[in-house]
Amino acid sequence: MEAEKKEGKNSVLIILIIAAVIIVILAVVIVYLIVRDNKTETASPSLSASSNATPTASASNRAGWETYNNSRFGYSIQVPPKLEKTESTNGDGASFTTWDPPMTIRVWAENNDQNLAAQQAIDLDKQSLIQEGMENFRVIVEGPIEMGGESAIESVWQYIAPPMGDAATSARAYAIKNNITYSIELLIDTSQWNSYSTIFDDVFTSFKFL
What we know:
CATH topology of the largest domain: Protein Transport Mog1p, Chain A
Distance between the termini: 99 Å
Number of helices: 3
CATH superfamily of the largest domain: Mog1/PsbP, alpha/beta/alpha sandwich
Shape: elongated
Helix content: 25-40%
CATH class of the largest domain: Alpha Beta
CATH architecture of the largest domain: 3-Layer(aba) Sandwich
């Protein structure tokens, strides 16, 4: 009888220990999820200017910036100095790159052969990225702005780029004038977006039609 009681006590003790372990594991998982969500929220890009308001041109922030003129499509922008410039072979635009931090600014124009609105053009590009296999694709913020005095659409996307699994943020602005689509993009590592997002606002507020 004593042996049975002792065995019963041991069984209860084992059950209590298992229950305690499960509770500790659940607590750890809950804490991890809370911390992860907080980090994700902190890292999520947020435009320095509201997507529902036209950003104010900040010429003082662009002191010393370089001006790029495109004669084929008649536009110009200003970009930070000392970026490596690469002009497109067909003369539609150029890209400007730095490795500190890894960031690329692109500007280009193209004939709007499909007669798309700016929102439709952005939606097509988002679909293309998803079809190309970009993982965890999501739109962070999107809305109307002005670019060179014309109505435009700005959209910020975040995704994981295969095969390396890099987290990237792409901020784009699209304007359409005289059936030509004008586009500006800033592509940067997601971890750096909050520190450099204002550069994008300064670039597209510098955009002018020539």
